[in-house]
Amino acid sequence: MVKEKINFNRGVPPAESFPSKKIVQCLEKAIQRDGDSILQYGSSAGYPPLIEWVAEKYGVDTNQVVMGQGSLQLLDILVKTSFGNQNPIFVEQPTYDRTLTIFRRAGVKVKGFRLESGRMDFEEIEAEIHKNGSPKFFYIIPDFQNPNGSVMPLEDRERMVRMAEEYSFTIIEDGPYRELRYGGEALPSIHQLAPKCTIHMSSLSKLISPGMRIGYMVASAETSQKIRQYAEDTYISPNLLSHAAAYEFIRNGWLDEHLTLLLNLYRKRRDALQSSLAGRLSEFADWTETQGGFFIGVFLKGESDLPNNADYKKAGLLMSRGTAFFLEGGENFIRLPFCALDENQISEGIIRLRKVLDNGV
Question: How confident is the model at residue 360, as a pLDDT?
């Protein structure tokens, strides 16, 4: 009888990572300082001081920044306001399952390119462009990719930029995990390399709290204005109370302090997962060891007798469907989030997964 379910289903922060007491202080201070404005409807772009912080962080004008209820919402608006162009969207494969949902729901054509250890075949991409035309957008997660944890090498980032400039498409760079680096050297973001052909999206969900619902997008002034107008016509303004509390958190110097705590906590959990995989699954699977983020993606070897949801449930494992991260295929793929599990849960989870693969549940 399995006593505890091990949840490898969602890439979320653990409750112990939330700086709850400091957030309470920040909320109180924000209301005292700015209550009349942040408790009222406001700008669809977000709380001005937080916008200024993002603009300074990325070296852009404030009219290039839009805040929303998570960056995924802003991506949804971007696609809706750009739908007039019938060119497809290119993506890595695998990629974040919710972005695929957004693209499919909008009726956009999507073309995926296989990602191997953080690298795509650029010859294949160029061949597709020459055959069927350039995409409107190329959506990528270059730092600690969701779902497989890989990092795009610098030479590939530079080549991606050259392709965007040559074939006139826009790179959508999703970077929510970029600051969660546990080892290795940081690489320049795509936005740093080529801000004019890049839309950068990120959030404070992984750095402070997802429940505060604070995401942002850095784009051209024209694109940002379209998103702001759509937002104003849809929900009037985002959660300015959360924005003001987050700004107070940052202004107090607590974000850097909290990031150090997160890195120390998550590094141990990443190490525990990589050690467990190496000790128990090396004969069954291949994976890329990650330098940061929330995930390690595992590809099972062979194509027969792959586990199904019933097998996982019987073993007390909650797992995502591997196929959800692919346009096609992915039956042999497993996404393993590690940040919300402690070292004992991670070890026990991989023991159970090994039993499933042994058909010994």
Answer: 47
